[in-house]
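RECORD TYPE: inverse folding
INPUT: structure tokens
STRUCTURE:
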């Protein structure tokens, strides 16, 4: 089986791939201070009765990448593939400096390209990313702060605002502090997603542009959006990792 590893700024998402499908997914926090041994102990309970014979990594946190690579060498006796290190990706990248395009963005678009020839990926993670592609070509992006990081910044800078859970209130206008905050954050981000989709559709002159949504909070935000979302796939990056793995192991 192949261990898929998506190292993000907030979480590390893992998937186990076997016979053209993901049989299990799990996630842990992106600890910057963990050693390779500690990371192995964190994921070991999820790997019972699983034999890992290969691994592919997508990462935006080099410090964690190093620890995971050491873990792979020590505990699985293998050398993992790493997106961005001379792998074939099957994707043309059009931008000022292709080397600056994040590995997670590449995986998003590689996966989305297998659903639709042209589309917009909306990835709501630590950052809110809008990725436009056409004919297996990445053509650019728009990146904004993410839901969680924006909310935490607001709480940190406003002495009277409390911490809150991400729960959708039944209406937009509320009369107590926490529902007011929940409304502003969740309906506000949904409105941002709607607005960005509308602007990008206009800019690329395609009112029927397919929208593919992913990211940790997408299932919370997507139902609040008024623009049509054609596909929701929380494991889009992992699917991209599978496509890239198969292309390099064929």
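DESIGNED SEQUENCE:
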């Amino acid at each position: 089986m192949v261990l898929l590893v998506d190292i993000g700024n907030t979480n590390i998402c893992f998937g186990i791939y076997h016979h053209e499908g993901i049989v299990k997914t799990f996630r842990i926090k992106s600890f910057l201070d963990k050693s390779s041994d500690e990371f192995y102990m964190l994921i070991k309970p999820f790997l019972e009765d699983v034999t890992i014979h290969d691994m592919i990594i997508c990462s935006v946190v080099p410090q964690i990448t190093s620890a995971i690579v050491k873990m792979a060498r020590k505990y699985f006796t293998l050398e993992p593939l790493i997106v961005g290190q001379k792998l074939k990706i099957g994707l043309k990248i059009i931008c000022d400096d292709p080397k600056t395009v994040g590995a997670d963005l590449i995986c998003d678009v590689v996966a989305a390209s297998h659903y639709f020839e042209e589309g917009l990926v909306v990835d709501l993670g630590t950052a809110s990313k809008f990725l436009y592609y056409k004919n297996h070509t990445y053509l650019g992006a728009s990146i904004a702060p993410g839901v969680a990081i924006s909310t935490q910044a607001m709480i940190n800078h406003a002495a009277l605002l409390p911490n809150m859970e991400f729960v959708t209130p039944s209406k937009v206008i509320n009369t107590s502090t926490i529902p007011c905050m929940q409304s502003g954050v969740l309906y506000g981000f949904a409105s941002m997603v709607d607005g960005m989709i509308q602007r990008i559709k206009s800019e690329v002159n395609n009112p029927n542009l397919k929208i593919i949504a992913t990211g940790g909070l997408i299932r919370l935000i997507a139902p609040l959006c008024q623009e049509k979302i054609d596909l929701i796939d929380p494991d889009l990056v992992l699917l991209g990792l599978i496509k890239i793995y198969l292309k390099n192991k064929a």
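NOTES: The mean pLDDT is 94.
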